Amino acid sequence: VNNEVHGLLDLQRAGEICAAKGALFHTDAAQALGAVPLNVRRMRIGLMSLSAHKIYGPKGVGALYVARELQPLVRPLIVGGGQQRNLRAGTLPTALIVGMGKACERARSVLDSEAPRLVRLAQRFLQLLSNLDIDYRLIGPSRLEQRRPGSLCISIEGLDGTKLCEWMPDVAISQGSACNSQGVGSHVLRALGLSVAEARSVIRIAFGKFNNESDVSYVVERLAIILEQGRRAGQHKGTKSSAEPQLLAV
Predict the structure, then answer these.
(1) pTM (whole model) above 0.70
(2) Is 153 annotated in the active site?
């Protein structure tokens, strides 16, 4: 899963290509864990990185799956002991590992029901934007089935996404893709043809297990207020349309 536009990679096809070419296949599945089915054998995955906090597990612990036949080829980054078949020395954080295991167990138990629910929330969000005549476009795959369930990357006309976190402090919306510290913009968005200026209107929204339709409605209503106030401010002489609005209670 791409961490900016949330597009899904066809892991099985990628694994088949790597196997046919004799290449080792490693995938960073941190965003995919708990969101889409993963089968290392069917997908011919040789190495796979995972992170617990993406599935509501403890922070500070992750896992690297290494196929048995590849383990002799992997050199450890931390040496000194024989832990984990000599792949990583150091005392294991048992409590964190158990927490990650439990989080994986719970994520797997609800995968079949949770993924469709999150897709419905994303569909509802886009429908409400359309109902309020908010001009938006999806960045990345056009079909929600080709995205991580419940995750959206959208560009909204007239919105300055770089200031959205200030305007909506009670909503966890990520911008993080318009400009980096060097001012050259996101390499992902540049590869998709967006300029730095266009990327300023891009926001990333990911609905999760604690969200419902009321949350979806609330966020859309807040966005509508911000856009309307920005539009009104822009009508005044000498005021840009991206002027900071005063938030209203919804």
Answers:
(1) yes
(2) no
- With vertex at residue 12, the alpha carbon angle to CA 6 and CA 16, rounded to the nearest 5 degrees, is 130
Q: Are 46 and 70 in contact (CB under 8 A)?
A: yes
The amino acid sitting at 97 is I
pLDDT in tens, 6-46: 999 999 999 999 999 999 999 999 999 999 999 999 999 99
Mean pLDDT of the chain: 86
**From the candidates 104, 153, 165, 179, which is the catalytic residue?**
179
What is the C-alpha to C-alpha distance for residues 152 and 35, in angstroms, rounded to an integer? 14
CB 178 within 8 A of CB 165: no
Percent of the chain whose predicted confidence (pLDDT) is above 70: 89
Using CA atoms, how far apart are residues 28 and 6, in angstroms rounded to an integer?
13
